[in-house]
Write a structure and sequence with these properties.
Distance between the termini of chain B: 26 Å
CATH class of the largest domain in chain A: Mainly Alpha
Helix content of chain B: 25-40%
Order of helices and strands of chain A: EHEEHEEHHEHH
Largest sheet of chain B: 3 strands, antiparallel
Radius of gyration of chain A: 18 Å
Oligomer: heterodimer
CATH topology of the largest domain in chain A: Multidrug-efflux Transporter Regulator, Chain: A, Domain 2
Number of strands of chain B: 3
Largest interface: A-B, 21 and 24 residues
CATH architecture of the largest domain in chain A: Orthogonal Bundle
Structural class of chain B: alpha+beta
Shape of chain B: globular
Strand order of the largest sheet of chain A: 2-3-1-4
Helix content of chain A: 40-55%
Strand content of chain B: 25-35%
Order of helices and strands of chain B: HEEEH
Number of helices of chain B: 2
Largest sheet of chain A: 4 strands, antiparallel
Chain lengths: 167, 78
């Protein structure tokens, strides 16, 4: 199965390092450089998306890089959530702040206030509380989970004490 | 626009020759790099391998590079 996704590296590769990436296994992919950052557009054959992601992270480390994030399509505004679930923005905003509804809406993931929220988490919340069948594919969930794990690793702290959270 | 010569893999050559003027192609012939594709708007570049593992997949990767930049620069203009 061909797995296509994009990962962020910890730095922009030099021209010579592009060859190191090729030799480390990225002859199936396309690193990109510019603006001081490095990305790799991946097209990797693997039985599962998770296997593809793990192998990409290992290959990048072999070339002297760290994968620090996966291109994130999961963080969206409340307006986007509203469009996708068929409600007004004001309705979703009040659900998100607990002014209406059962509460427990997924907390904001970034930005000030309620600017961005995980679509995967918001969709699951609507499914549980309102029976909305808003599907998020396995691909979305795996990519979102892998992105969060990679960002946690990039913080440079010992994550072993937190390992039970991943169980 | 392609100002470079012909890539040895047909699938990649087809992807490169169909690029619009927003993207430049340059031959490099260094290491594993036949050349590179550059977004003329932001300058981001990507190498085009001489011997990619699966040429058809790399042709698809060139298309993804183009799509990504078109989306990015279209929203920047809003």
């Amino acid at each position: 199965m061909l797995n296509e996704f994009t990962v962020y590296l910890d730095r922009q590769p030099t021209d010579d390092e592009l060859d190191l990436l090729y030799e480390a296994g990225f002859d199936d992919s396309m690193p990109t450089t510019g603006g001081g950052r490095g990305l790799i557009q991946v097209a990797r054959e693997a039985d599962t998306l998770a296997e593809a992601i793990v192998s990409v992270v290992a290959d990048a480390e072999r070339a002297g890089f760290r994968v620090v994030a996966i291109e994130d399509e999961d963080l969206v505004s409340l307006r986007t959530v509203a469009e996708r679930v068929g409600r007004s923005y004001e309705s979703v905003r009040k659900l998100a702040t607990g002014q209406r509804g059962p509460g427990g809406f997924p907390p904001p993931a970034a930005g000030d206030g309620w600017s961005l929220v995980s679509w995967t988490a918001a969709a699951a919340w609507f499914g549980e509380h309102y029976g909305l069948e808003v599907s998020t594919s396995d691909r979305d969930r795996v990519l979102a989970a892998a992105d969060h794990l990679l960002r946690a690793r990039a913080l440079g702290i010992d994550l072993h004490p937190l390992a039970p959270l991943a169980a | 626009m392609v100002s470079a010569g012909r890539h040895p893999k047909n699938a990649i050559n087809a992807a490169l020759t169909s690029l619009s003027d927003d993207f430049e192609v340059e031959e490099v012939h260094k290491g594993h790099r036949w050349g590179l594709v550059r977004c003329a708007v932001c300058g981001e570049t990507a190498p085009v391998w001489s011997t990619p593992r699966v040429p058809e997949h790399n042709a698809r990767l060139i298309e993804r590079f183009v799509d990504r930049h078109r989306r990015q620069h279209a929203t920047e203009g809003e």
